Amino acid sequence: MSGRLGSPEIALDAVSVGYGERIVLSGVTTTLPAGKVSVILGGSGCGKSTLLRNIIGLVPIRTGRIVLGGKDMAAMDAAERLAMRRRMGVLFQDGALLGSMRLGENIALPLREHTDLTDSLIEEIVRLKLRLVGLADFMDYFPSELSGGMRKRAGLARAMALDPAVLLCDEPTSGLDPITAAEMDQLVLELKTTFDMTIVVVTHDLESLSAIADHVVVLNQGKMLFEGTLPALAGCGDPFIRQFLDRQPSRESRVLSERWSALVARRREAVAAGRERGRSAC
Amino acid sequence: MAGGGDESGMLVWLVMRLWGCIRDAFLPWKRTKAYQRSRLWTHMAWIGADSLPIVSIISACVGIILALQSATQLEKVGALSYVANLVGFSIVTELGPLLVCLILAGRAGAAFTAEIATMRISEEIDALEVMGIDPVRFLIWPKFAAMCVMAPLLTLWGDAVGITAGGVFSALALGLPGKAYFLQTANFLGMRDVAAGLIKSAGFGITITIVSCWQGLLAREGAADVGRRTTRAVVQSIFLMILLDLFFTALNYIFR
Questions:
Q1: Which residues of A touch B1 (CB under 8 A)?
Q2: Sequence spans of domains, chain A
Q3: pTM
Q4: Chain A residues within an 8 Å CB radius of B129
Q5: Is B133 in Cβ contact with A57 (below 8 Å)?
Q6: CATH number for the A34-50+77-281 domain, one of 1.20.120.1630, 3.40.250.10, 3.40.50.300, 3.10.100.10?
Q7: What is the ipTM of this complex?
Q8: Do A141 and A153 contact (CB within 8 A), yes or no?
Q9: Mean per-residue pLDDT for A161-179?
Q10: Angle ∠(B244,B246,B247) on CA atoms, nearest 5
């Protein structure tokens, strides 16, 4: 199944991933729908960024299949993989802009590599993409001269350079102030509606989730706990999901916190008692 | 990255990818894009032209040192005129390539490792891959090609500066006639000696680039790892250069 203008769906079939001996995720089966924003949600270290790297093709999966627009990624030859990558745009956590190149050169890089466009046309496209993310005046800046939010937006502009059908974003709002984070969400929504893209966002930002998600996948402790729409997620009774959505600390952390409070109280009492004894001796 | 896995696996992967780049460079239908040519020129200028001052100073000093040392010994046997032979031969066949490539290992090799390691850690190399840009062709091939060309050229320059400095010093301090000094050097040195030195320097240049870029690609654990990998790259490059030097010199001796 595909979106209106050819944006593909991404199907994960019993996918297991890991590093070395360690299995990070196992048995993930879901479909990230075409032309929609799918949010992969989960706590830190649950494997959501690893799953994204699997979808991109940077890390091979252990078992299962990832099918993009009807094509099994593992069965693709080098030319098909290259063609597939040209249809994908990826926004890395910190933008991953090439530090030795100016912003304009960064955005122009995929165009120079994959097209035979003239320099003037490439410059025009670069200006257009930077205008799209509100950075038209920063074309000659180096990434180190930009703020974190600007680097992320620039990373988004680069991901959009070849007008991809699929956009994958790794924690696009992490480390951003609330206003910049809301602007980033707005940008993702605009891209979806304007370009009819399949967008996959990995995040643990609840504000961002409620702003952009059409489809949600929740991961925890190496398993997929939930997949469905935002209203279905809100009605879900799973204890981890409730705890996650209500921003509650874990049971272990509560116990530790209570122990710490008791320890501090006892210490205060001992100090007060010592002072009292000192005063009586005088 | 596809090569992932263990360290030796990554080295084999890197060498295979570089071999692919060399092969493609000679295929007429594999056109190099303008921006890639521009990256090659940038690297050539940085490795070659920017190294000229330090290579010149060190080569001149070594030429004078060799002239002084040779004169001290040869004077005892009344063979001062052979200073030219000793200085010329030592510089062209041994010290020229070795010193120039030691400078390149410290200057360019360390920079290659630090650059690639930083890019690795900050996901820039992953970004290149997902953009469908081969990181070896984009990042390492221009360094490799520039080093293959510039290491022998710098060696040639270093040889010339060292011999000239030795000659000027001999003329001014030892009283040897300048013209005779240079004629003796030209008569004594053969093309084979010059070629042996240049082949050595090309081999050293290739070693430096492969070791430095390989160590850069292996970086994983933050800023400390960048420093560790850079140190390791320089030490391994120097060690391999000395081994390679021994090998080339032995070959030269066997087929003399």
A1: 58
A2: 34-50+77-281
A3: 0.81
A4: 58, 85
A5: no
A6: 3.40.50.300
A7: 0.76
A8: no
A9: 88
A10: 65
